[in-house]
Specification:
Blueprint lengths: L8 H14 L7 H14 L3 E5 L2 H16 L9 E4 L5 H9 L3 E4 L11 H4 L7 E4 L11 H11 L4 E3 L7 E2 L2 E2 L6 E5 L12 E5 L1 H6 L3 H9 L3 E3 L2 E2 L10 H36 L7 E2 L6 E2 L5 E4 L3 H13 L33 H9 E4 L7 H12 L2
Parallel strand pairs: 2-3, 2-4, 5-8
Antiparallel strand pairs: 1-9, 6-7, 6-13, 8-9, 10-11, 12-14, 14-15
């Protein structure tokens, strides 16, 4: 469905040459610090913490923010409200941190959390709200953040798909208390593996000292050679990943532009069916005011049967589309039996259930050829 973006080989070799001279390959080395500073400056952040994986970044943020909200309180099974229309990593992080997931429904136009379904789920057990900028479509951040502030609950955005997206001319990662990025090889921007926690001034104000806590969590709780203050784990980004990040960051604008060209070619090639007044095939689109990164091309088919037929037909030709996200996270073997799943079944999250049964993400990456796009579009029109 995608192809990893890599910098010119010689450029990467030159970037890692100093590692062979210094033998410094981990523990927040100079390339790690340069990479963090470059991202922080690009988006005007008040803080950014790099991790070896985006999933670990999400777990660490839940540990630092959601746990602190209920510190000292004897609460049974604190909850985190999220969406079932997401990659299972989102829900895994909640459960692995000792919280119970509660599932809100999503908006039909873009697949992001529906704020109207959020507030009825909030209770004294709510430790955090974890919306997802699904496919890079910005959530209704104004509404979600307002609800969270009213109840004094931290908002952690899963921004795994949202690298360098802007909403109303503001970097999307500056909304909420924290935003979590993934730099996995399948993403628009990659360090092969990796991730980051982005903190805005709002997040700093709500969670004083979170940057230090995140460092403790990702580095065994070690402050110096003789001081260990927290039972942390190991989530440090190494220098090879940081070098890849610095190299790819130099080319990210042209990468996004190339993906944008492929996206527009899809729109043109699919125009005959998308433009029909009663079109049974439609797109999920970002809200007005979004500057996208063209991470995905999610197509909604009329029903699950037609979606599965198209998926099978494309696979037969070696074209790897993806049922992303199917099944719903709340309907996987891991979570189907949870008590909170009653909030994520078809009757409680009907929009998410419908989208999951009909969505198919078509191949999209920088350099995707127009002939390939037209061939894929032809297959779609024949369903």
């Amino acid at each position: 469905m995608t192809r990893t973006s890599l910098p010119p080989f010689e450029e990467f070799c030159e970037a890692i040459r100093p590692l062979w001279e210094s033998h410094i390959v981990t523990n927040m080395g100079p390339l790690h610090e340069q990479f963090a500073a470059a991202l922080q400056a690009r988006w005007g952040l008040d803080g950014i913490t790099l991790f070896s994986h985006g999933h670990l970044a999400l777990e660490a943020t839940l540990e630092a923010l959601a746990t602190s909200r209920h510190s000292g309180l004897d609460l049974e099974s604190p909850q985190v409200i999220t969406t079932p229309f997401t990659f299972v990593s989102t829900v895994h992080a909640i459960v692995r941190c000792g919280f119970t997931p509660v599932f809100a429904d999503v908006l039909p136009e873009d697949g992001t959390m529906d704020p109207s379904s959020l507030e009825p789920l909030i209770s004294e057990r709510t430790a955090a709200i974890l919306p997802v900028h699904v496919y890079g479509n910005p959530c209704d951040v104004e509404a979600i953040d307002a609800i969270a502030r009213q109840h004094g609950i931290p908002v952690i955005y899963d921004a795994a798909h949202a690298f360098d997206i802007y909403y109303k001319d503001i970097p999307l990662v500056r909304y909420g208390d924290a935003s979590i990025l993934s730099f996995h090889a399948t993403k628009v921007f990659s360090t092969v593996e990796g991730g980051a926690v982005c903190l805005s001034s709002q997040g700093i104000a709500k969670a004083k000292g979170i940057s230090l806590r995140l460092d403790d969590i990702k580095n065994f709780g070690i402050r110096d050679e003789e001081t260990c203050v927290y039972p942390g784990g190991n989530g440090k980004m190494n220098e090879l990943e940081a070098a890849m990040g610095l190299c790819n960051l130099r080319h990210i604008d042209e990468e996004i532009a190339s993906r944008g060209e492929a996206y527009m070619s899809y729109l043109e090639a699919l125009q005959p069916i998308l433009a029909k007044p009663d079109a049974a095939v439609r797109l999920l689109r970002s809200r007005p005011g979004t500057r996208p990164n063209y991470a995905y091309f999610p197509l909604l088919l009329p029903d699950q049967t037609s979606r599965d037929s198209l998926y099978t037909a494309l696979r037969a030709e070696g074209i790897h589309a993806r049922k992303y996200f199917w099944p719903l996270a709340s309907n996987t073997d891991c979570y189907r039996s949870l008590a909170s799943e009653r909030m994520g079944n078809a009757s409680k999250t009907p929009v998410a259930t419908d989208l999951a049964a009909r969505v198919l993400c078509l191949p999209l990456f920088a350099g995707l050829q127009r002939d390939d796009i037209e061939h894929i579009a032809s297959a779609v029109q024949n369903i």
